[in-house]
Amino acid sequence: MDILTWTYLLVGLSFALYIGIAIWSRAGSTEEFYVAGGGVSPLANGLATAADWMSAASFMSMAGIIAFSGYDGSVYLMGWTGGYVLLALLLAPYLRKFGKFTVPDFVGDRYYSKKARVVAVVCALFISFTYVAGQMRGVGIVFSRYLELPIEWGVVIGMAIVFFYAVLGGMKGITYTQVAQYCVLIFAYMVPAIFISLQLTDMPIPQLGLGGSVAEGKPLLDKLDGMLLELGFGAYTSGKKSMIDMLMITLALMVGTAGLPHVIVRFFTVPKVKDARLSAGYALVFIAILYTTAPAMAAFGIYNTLQSTSQKSLTELPDWVQNWEKTNLIQIEDKNGDGKVQYLADPQANELRIDKDIMVLASPEIARLPNWVVGLVASGAMAAALSTAAGLLLVISTSVSRDLFKTFNPSLSEKKELRIARISAAGAVLLAGYFGINPPGFVAEVVAFAFGLAASSFFPVILLGIFSTRVTKEGAIAGMLTGLLFTISYITYFKFVYPDLNTSAHWWWGISPEGIGTLGMILNFLVCFGVSYLSPPPPKEVQSLIQNIRIPKGAGKAYEH
Amino acid sequence: MPMSPSSSHMKLYWKKNLQTLAILLFFWALVSFGCGIVWVEELNAYRLGGYKLGFWFAQQGSIYAFIVLIFVYVVRMNKLDREFKVNEE
């Protein structure tokens, strides 16, 4: 069978599976809709969290980003995994014991204030929307590249699928489809990785292959350093970013990960506090399988690309280069007219431009794997995009139905609340689809926003809410607003207002907009403490609430107070 | 025997919890910010198979260490919960 038939078959089968699971796991109550009835096993929750977390960008782009940035790409690897340590140790068990449905729920109760809750809802909505638009775009890109459909069609089909299981199934439907999606995406990622590792280094495990030796017995990474230096690039294993920026970006991504509402909410779905701890561990294991393979894919990808293109004559380029030239993801321009490809650091002389997504998307062809593997990678990328989109849509719909409608109209019946949740999920799907088809020009930039905002708004107030009994509502609101405004202003200034000034010479203390969330977080902490000590201490009920969430005993299912 | 959350027993539980967190977070920062970023050049003088050691920490080792830290935390806290009789049935 040809590639297109295989792709349609495998993507179609995976969609049928997701729909089947959605029908089987329809939600009947708000509790099932918001937190899957609180009865998800730690292992299933770990799998679902991993799928929820790993987005279209993790699957398609991360290996490419590392391939072209080498050591500097480590910030993403450490940042997006180290956050789970913070989540497991500092947030998940306590929020599970607290036992409600959303992050704004916690902020509202702990800080005894509707205002604090509304600020939290606005943050949650903003973070989730910036993220979800990128996922829908990812679905569209996969459709257009592999199924040869227009992007618009891809987005519409993706919307229909997510609509079906997120709106019908709520958290319950999402959880079990995410378990299936994890299996699809990790299988799709590992198959080409293992084959390429075997071909290059004779090691079946990519993590060992990255430290292995290529044909002439020289370590792959040393060989790569040598090749890149010769072409005028920096060595693969050393970076260009300053140490302070590396530290700041890594910490902002870690703290941002721990503060993302769609990740936190997953830990409300397990039955017990100790399950919340354990499932954070499982989640990181499942995430780490992909995140430790990605740097191997990166190095293999750039090595293969250099081997098969650099200084090669235009007529002897391998098939995959020609195939992907059609999609414009690879562009070759013979500037000096010598009939050969020069890949060089100097932009004037460089003749080869490669999109970062190539390292994963073209991997089956680079390794000359059978056609079905191409279809598999397509359905894996789709699984990654859909699972993240669904998790985000749930946060959006919950925020609207529960944190906005229910807060201001507490007499809302459960049936009505569930209907509002479904309608707002539907509305969110449509809006996300719109942005998928008409992406704002700044999709890549807003990712810095999402993490910076999560780091500078949520993380400090949740952390202090658990570990300090003295922090007050005035402190929390002032802290969140300071962190938020500071981070938004800094990113907006450098990314949108004066993009020409976006260089380390103009940054404060050499901190890039990607890493500024760390500074926003520190400001949030300082303001929060300062204002808290100037305002009257929290009331007795709140003090005992805090004491209560600190001990695991007596965690019921997530419940209505 | 039921215990009020503010008894000295609970204070001790909380203190031990905080100690556990401090130790684990120290190692969390050591493997990532320390070995992966601050001392990466120094560590790159050593090798682990085909890897330079600092590079290995930044792209592989720190992630493995994070997993170990979470599971150490799980085991340690479960033990602490039972010791202080605050575990769930």
Fraction of helical residues of chain B: over 70%
Number of helices of chain A: 22
Task: Compute the average pLDDT of chain A.
Answer: 86
Q: Give the DSSP E fraction of chain B (strand runs of 2 or more residues).
A: under 5%
The number of distinct structural domains of chain A comes to 1
Helix content of chain A: over 70%
Q: In what order do the strands lie side by side in the largest sheet of chain B?
A: 1-2
Biggest sheet of chain B, open or closed, and with what strands and sense? 2 strands, antiparallel
CATH class of chain A: Mainly Alpha
What is the element string of chain B, with H for helices and E for strands? HHEEH
Low-pLDDT stretches of chain A: none
Gap between N and C termini of chain A: 58 Å
End-to-end separation of chain B: 15 Å
- Could you give the order of strands across the largest sheet of chain A? 1-2
User: Roughly what is the average pLDDT of chain B, rounded to an integer?
Assistant: 89
> What's the number of extended β-strand segments of chain B?
2
Overall spatial form of chain A = globular
For this structure, the quaternary state is heterodimer
Strand % of chain A is under 5%
Give structural attributes.
heterodimer, A: 561 residues, mainly alpha, Sodium/glucose cotransporter, two-stranded antiparallel ribbon, 1% strand, B: 89 residues
Describe the structure in your own words.
- The complex is a heterodimer of chains A (561) and B (89).
- The termini of chain A are far apart.
- Chain A has helices at residues 3-24, 30-35, 42-53, 56-69, 74-98, 103-110, 114-146, 151-201, 206-209, 220-230, 243-259, 261-264, 273-309, 319-325, 358-361, 363-366, 371-408, 414-437, 443-467, 473-497, 516-534, 540-549, and strands at residues 330-332, 352-354.
- Chain A has 22 helices and two strands.
- Chain A is mainly alpha-helical.
- Chain B is elongated and about 50 Å long.
- At the A-B interface, helix 5, helix 10, helix 11, helix 13 and helix 22 of A face helix 1, strand 2 and helix 3 of B.
